Amino acid sequence: MLGAPRPRSSRQRFEPDDVDHQMRDLVVMMARGIVDHPDEVRVDILEPGEDAQLELSVDPDDLGHVIGKQGRTARALRLALGAAAAKHDRQASLEIAD
Predict the structure, then answer these.
(1) Domains plus CATH for the chain?
(2) Is 6:68 a contact under the CB 8 Å cutoff?
């Protein structure tokens, strides 16, 4: 029998390690290549560790560039991030801040 799921707040907090920083740098590099204001690209590590969560922030004028038609560019960014995380036996998700 399965136990009750633990509340999200009880998760152990980890400090970002080298792999977290590498994944962040990957998203920064990809995003800077497709926006008009590359200096405004920022990626924050919201949840480091085995199931990392990253948040991409760009200039409001560039939001359409990182989302793309029907979300295809955003999907491609997430796919590349997931593949990079899988190489380290991890999972990663990407949120795009508006």
Answers:
(1) 15-96 (3.30.300.20)
(2) no
